[in-house]
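Example 3.2
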Amino acid sequence: MRYRFPLAAAVAALALGAFADNSKFTHYGLRDAATGKATSLASLKGKYKAIYIDFFAKWCGPCQGEIVKVIQLHNQLSSKGVGFVGIDVWEPWAAMQQDMKMRGINYAVMHDDATAPKGILQILGLREIPVVIILDGKTLAEKGRWTNGLDPTGKAEAEQMRLLRSMGVR
């Protein structure tokens, strides 16, 4: 499954300030996959120049392909001020833990305990995954949103890198 965020909708959302106040999204209760403790994206405020968030599920083939790309980006950019977070929006806790080990995910993962399509996906108005959202690390303002799965042209990755560079990531 893929979520398409049409350009016209993106322009309209920006014009209406839809990305301006995302406190409901950033304060939404998640669970840290490493510790099992309650957390939220708001806990990352001020720790990074940018926060790269990948929404995924174990059963989603395009999501799993994206995880490989996110691991590579994490290895390249985590020392340059980018925080990486995967948000599992579907699996039960144990299945998510198994998937993380199997995939070799080396960045932070948060778990949404709500049953999809509710929870964080509903707050964001997302109907399908995979989706990447980049936040400003200082303000948590949303700076960009992409559907990445099955993008053989690499256009989304190139846009993400341009955005990260514009945010001071070198």
